[in-house]
Amino acid sequence: MFFGTSSSIRFPFLPGSMGTTSLMADMDVKRETQLLPQTVGIIPLGYTIPALLDAACDRSPNATAFNQWTGTNWTSLSNQTFRETVESVALGLLDLGLRAGDRVALLLHSDLSFAIADMGCLLANLVTVPIDLTQTLENIIYVIQHSGSRALIVSTLDLLQQIGPYLGQTAELQQIIVVDLPTGCLLLPSLSVGITAQTATPEPDTPAPPLHCFPECTGLDLHQCLHLTYPDWRISLPADVQICALTQIQAQGEIEKSAATLADLRSGLSPHDLATIIYIPGPAGELLGVMLSHENLTGNAMAAFAELPDLAWGAAEVALSFLPLNHVFARHMLYGHIYYGHSLYFSQPNWVFKHLAEVKPTILTVVPLLLEKIYSQILKRGKKLKVWKRLVFGWSLWLARHYQLGQKPHVIYAGLLKLADWLVLSQWRSPFGGRLKYLLCGGAALGAELANVLTAAGIPILQGYGLTQAGGVVSFNRGVANRAGTVGLPIAGVEVKIADDGEILVRSPYMMSGYDQHPEATKQDIDAQGWLHTGDLGRITSGGLLQITGLKKPLFKLSTGKYIAPLPIENRLKQSTFVAEAIIVGADRKFSAVLIFPNTTALQQLARELGLNLSGNALLQHPCIVGLYRALVESVNCHLPYWAIVKRFQLIHTELRLENGLPISHQQLDRQQVLQCFAQEIDNLFREGSSNNTATAIEIASTHSEEFDHQEIACPVYPVTPCPVFAQSLDIRQEGSEGKSERARG
């Protein structure tokens, strides 16, 4: 009986059973409650970001505060050495002619070089503009141009090579700074004020180095520039843009460094100064620059870290960082770790499991996708066990699934769970290194079952909720205020209330000042009383915790933490006469998909032209019709980053009528009602085990679902316009990684 999997089996000692306090009672909504109780605590205002580093160096010196993976081992910097490096970089940047308030774009991998460049800019009172490396080239150029960035710091020549031909569109750009240069490549200062790129001068009687760095602009377009391999570098750059290496900037800063110049740096900073502009997609797909001050970021990080139970100062806490630092979530964690003087290890997604075993962190920050992958692997391995071990595994999993966060377990259940831990569950902790105190999950919603199961296995998950516009964290679970399916209590200084229509409103001193150069968008999102309209729907439980229930804005996140703006994709699909309506789905999923409601009149006309005597579902299942819609979806995938492309679609034979939540005439679509009405069809889109072969595609089509393949079928050829290179994502290969980044469009 213990090996059963039916959730209807109930025992007095199981959470939620008779004789215990049910969590569901706690989850009932206090419908009359509109304002979430504020957290009592010190609101830490008045700090600049470099001041956090200064405080850590004085209070918690740490010889291994910053650790970078080189591909073979770790190199470490103390926080004092890091501060000295940052000071030199700041002075070197100012020596280039940059001035307080100038914007500097960061096209950097999420590693130690990002932390140095970011902090160096901030100490020089420059405004950093971090760029998502997974964006399309056109969006990257837009961010540099729209922000008015005067300088660009880029990780590698390979990245610069890809964007170089388009930098002529960035009118304000004057300086390019390269972090990692290949061996033998030097950028030497010229006699002029600027810095010119040239090759190293060889010693007499020695052969010239084979690498040619930045020759005179040859006018090559990006098709020619892309994928040229070492040593054949050819980079097309605007003639008026000067270029140098980050090491040169640092060396020049060392020359300028003195007690007086360092004092001037710090005295010129104010907590209210603009620190960063982070670009996020708006509801219509447009990029909006969120403006955050030093105080917005420091106050939010300090308030959130202060709420972590038993958090230690200094090297006692070890953190592994692999999330993209252009996102506010990872930046928030970076500044918090710096302030507390923790040992921070910069990893990469391809190395994260290896590094978890090596570093054995006490703090790990993740998005739900990583936990979903780990859980999926656990379940797959359990199915492969021999009979007896599989039964024990199933019983342990069954117990873990009955665990409920925040509820004291019955003594019998606790004893059984301890036995299950000894037999099975303890093994689930090994992928995390075995020392984990805080597993902080954000960026997207985490499933309640997964939160309960992993917590039952001794993995301390704390889920949170936040927005870039709110300065980072709004609320998170901790201590006794920890329930699966909720995002806990707000941090000190944050007010949360639920509007009449269910939208979550937030107000705090950590909020953005607005969107850069978009006053109308700012007015739409921040009302006259200073409340930020988040676009998320939520409620307050009877236990006083915030729970996310849905979306108001047509904007959602994947389980990777990436934003998807459905409207522009849907509108492009609806330009076809064969599409009556299209709904992009994928909130909290691994990828996005689309429900397509065909225009039956146009489709029947096409069927007659093709000689197909079919209608309804039978017509939608025909390979020629499936091929038509596949071509349409592949066409709209152009101009989307690789992570945002629509990977599956579902053809639905349904008349447009209000009871299905669909528009008729000019009435507005009720997106939430569509998601509810077609929940089963949406779940089918994300089923595991689908493949790209034709047989499987036809089988999925019979349930109105299709996964892309490029198998030729005996039907008319539906042309797909080739996607131009500038509309594709960067190739972000990074040395030392296990494999290359995904660049394929399908």
Automatic annotation (TrEMBL):
Q: List all membrane-crossing ranges.
A: none
Tell me the organism. Answer: Cyanothece sp. (strain PCC 7425 / ATCC 29141)
Membrane keyword on record: no
Keyword set includes Transcription:
no
Q: Which GO terms describe its molecular function?
A: ATP binding; long-chain fatty acid-CoA ligase activity
* Domain AMP-dependent synthetase/ligase: residue ranges: 54-515
Its Gene Ontology cellular component terms are:
membrane
Q: What is this protein called?
A: AMP-dependent synthetase and ligase
Alphabetically sorted, this entry's keywords are: ATP-binding, Ligase, Nucleotide-binding
Q: Which InterPro entries match?
A: AMP-dep_synth/lig_dom (IPR000873), ANL_N_sf (IPR042099)
